Amino acid sequence: MAPVPITIITGFLGSGKTTLILNLIPQLPHTYKIALLKNEYGDVAIDSQLASSAAISGVQELLNGCICCNLVGQLGDALGSLLRDVGPDRIIIETSGSAFPATLAMEINRLGRETGNYVLDGVVVVIDVENWKGYEDTSYTAKMQQKYTDLIVFNKWELVDERRYDECLDRVGDLEPIANVKSDKGRVDQSLLLGLDSALAKDGDPINGGYSKDKPTHEHSEHHETEVEVLSVNLVSEGDKPKSVNIDSLETFLLSAPKDEVYRIKAIVSASHPMASSNGDIDESAGSQPGIATYILNWAFGRWTFTYSDMALPAPIGVASATAGSAVSNTHETILRMTIVLARGEASKWKSRLEKGGMIEQEDDGGFLMVSRVV
User: How many CB atoms lie within 10 A of CB 135?
Assistant: First the structure.
């Protein structure tokens, strides 16, 4: 069984973490099961009832302390309870307190290595632009801690003038650059917050998610549309025999993607052999399957997993032959379908890089690569 992805959402009290989660739920398939692990200061968790009413399958609470510090030892028991009682597709950890969740992230990585049950998908820090005063600590230690922050979400920016928002950007810049976006009144698209997992991959449009042109989505404000740019990538083979993506080229592409330019890469891939995940693990689940198998690639802010899937890639649509200019025949097969979520201003550059070749290609000669901008 594939490990359960864990998303950490952290930030100080009142920054808007719960609102971010509640706005995430309606964007997910109705059958998708999320479990929430949270901690609040004090004897009563203020918004657990609100979270429980929002189609969240289970809630565990760790009270009277910071989960990043003195409660980290209870993490394994709490996660195990959620795994046993809920069987979630994903676990979200919401924690108040430290904006540098290195200890928590390292503990999840340790538990993942020891049990094989979990994988850290992303660490999101929510900042209340109206009230945030900046990092108290800008030392070398703080910079090391910040490496475990994948994405900063600026919340409540609508309540302040542009100067105040620029001040927050400057304070974030006191440390190393981190990917950041503005929320849309507490909403960020799930394709940016969450990676691709086996449960989401079985949805009708597993790759494009909220950015699909064909799938109904919530209304996006004009502001939100410009917060990220999205490329859709398809690699189509031609011929009677199954084809594979060139794994070496794909790995080179993943290693070359700067995490302040490329936020997420999600793909369903046909491959003749598994590629190692960024931590060196190799999914051998397809070992008994002869020939080419399907894998799910989930790249998030410099880390990635490459896991076996029993699903089939969709048939190519709207692809023309590069040589004859004719419609796609029955001999064409999709061997890679990918979405790349990028920072503003990066789509054109990366579209050109991909189209030049050498990054996403068929294992042998041939294949048609199509790169288009979705957002």
Answer: 17
Look at residue 43 in the predicted model and tell me its pLDDT.
35
CA angle 342, 347, 351 (to 5 degrees): 120
Q: Which long-range contacts (CB under 8 A, 24 or more apart) does 159-164 make?
A: 159/129, 159/130, 160/129, 160/130, 164/129, 164/130
Tokens 């070359």 — which residue? 256
User: In this structure, what token pair is assigned to residue 216?
Assistant: 């109904």
- Secondary element (H or E) of residue 294: strand 293-300
Nearest Cα neighbor of 268 from 229, 216, 308, 322 is 308
Q: Take residue 259 and report the two structure tokens written for it.
A: 């995490």
pLDDT in tens, 62-97: 544 454 544 556 788 888 888 988 888 999 988 765
On whether the CB atoms of residues 63 and 109 are closer than 8 A, the answer is no
Q: Specify which residues 372 forms β-bridges with.
A: 232
